[in-house]
Design brief:
mainly alpha; Farnesyl Diphosphate Synthase; single chain; about 375 residues; two-stranded antiparallel ribbon
Length: about 375
């Protein structure tokens, strides 16, 4: 997809916002007004109520396999490289590894690393190994996430904690991290090790931020941004940066920023899926974030526009250890009616535009076009 084609398929809501500060904010210190719920909880929300009519167009969806074409050969080797890196003689680790291989994901992060390597104009002979490492780090975070959240399903299959135990899941996540570190050390290059060490630290902090956000209706958009930058976007940014390590510094820096914006848009889109898609599509129960009392952007954006009665419903859900399906459904409808979903879509589109602009510095190539297509994939994916 060319730049003009990409830009023309979006109704950029962000153009109507002030750019005087260089970025938009709707935090509790600039652009928010507080209210207090009947339960006494202090809540920050955007001053301007979200409006359903603001989103008139959507990004044209792109299939992942299409944007993966320029690196299809390398991706085919990533799975074998993963198997080599995590191989173990210990029986239970071998059993878990077999399950992880069956849970093979979409390899989105390895795709970004490989595309960045090509787009930077200096392909790295170690790129396939580095792509396997970034997927390994991603797998480790998923294993730990599922254990922390007590999730039973991942990609439509039983999680490690459901199939084995929480103890096995925690230890296995540690094992995957350790194998990634060993492989990076084996490459004898401090730069990818430095980047991924920083990223894993940021992701750990992101997980702590997410724990802090549980049940916390007084959670503003600025805090949410900090969470998704650390928890999700840091790894996409790191993948793009490591892919471009052999290229000019300006390309590397631009691709790191591209990955950060893309990762934030990706996470907002993921948070939207919890409100809009069924389990059959996403592979995880619908409304799972609400059931787990996770406060994400759609809810943050909607709270200030809700009626007192609707806010009481939200407070009731957050106070219920196991919210009933009917209550979850009611809160989903309240968030949609208050414009929370449309607000989150606009925010994802704005971040997508920022990611797109970072690619202008790169020379034209099929890899650069595929990176642009990855923006549409991230924003409009359904699973």
């Amino acid at each position: 997809m060319t730049r003009s084609a990409w830009a023309s398929c979006i109704g950029w809501a962000a153009r109507s916002r002030s750019r005087a500060s260089g970025s938009r904010r709707a935090s509790c210190t600039a652009g928010c007004s507080p209210w207090t719920s009947d339960s006494g909880m202090w809540v920050s929300a955007p001053r301007r109520s979200p409006r359903r009519s603001d989103v008139s167009q959507q990004v044209v969806p792109v299939a992942l396999r299409d944007l993966q074409r320029p690196v299809a050969g390398e991706l085919a080797r990533v799975a074998d490289e993963l198997g080599r890196i995590i191989a173990a003689d210990f029986p239970i680790i071998a059993d878990v590894n077999e399950h992880l291989v069956r849970m093979k994901g979409k390899l989105f992060r390895p795709t970004l690393l490989l595309l960045s390597s090509q787009a930077a104009g200096s392909p790295d002979p170690r790129a396939v190994t580095l792509a396997a490492v970034v997927e390994l780090i991603h797998l480790a975070t998923l294993v730990h996430d599922d254990s922390v959240d007590h999730s039973a399903l991942r990609r439509g299959m039983p999680t490690l904690n459901a199939l084995f135990s929480h103890q096995v899941a925690v230890i296995m996540g540690d094992y995957l991290y350790s194998r990634a570190i060993i492989e990076l050390v084996r490459l004898d290059d401090r730069e990818p090790l430095r980047v991924f060490a920083r990223v894993t630290n940021e992701m750990t902090i992101g997980e702590m931020r997410q724990l802090e956000a549980h049940d916390k209706l007084a959670y503003g958009e600025e805090q949410y941004d900090q969470l998704i930058r650390a928890k999700t976007a840091s790894l996409l940014s790191g993948a793009c940066e490591v892919g471009a390590l052999q290229g000019p510094a300006a390309y590397r820096e631009a691709l790191a920023r591209f990955g950060m914006r893309l990762g934030m848009a990706f996470q907002i889109a993921d948070d939207l899926l919890d409100y809009t898609e069924a389990e059959a599509v996403t592979g995880k129960p619908s409304g799972l974030d609400l059931r787990e009392h996770k406060v994400t952007l759609p809810l943050i954006a909607a709270l200030g526009a809700m009626s007192p009665a609707d806010r009481r419903l939200v407070a009731e859900l957050m106070g219920a250890p196991e919210p009933a399906d009917a209550l979850v459904g009611e809160v989903v409808r309240c968030v949609a009616a208050a414009g929370g979903l449309d607000y989150a879509r606009r925010r994802a589109l704005e971040l997508a535009q920022q990611a797109d602009a970072e690619l202008d510095i790169l020379p034209p190539s099929p890899a650069r076009d595929a990176l642009r297509d990855s923006i549409a994939y991230a924003v409009e994916r359904r699973s």
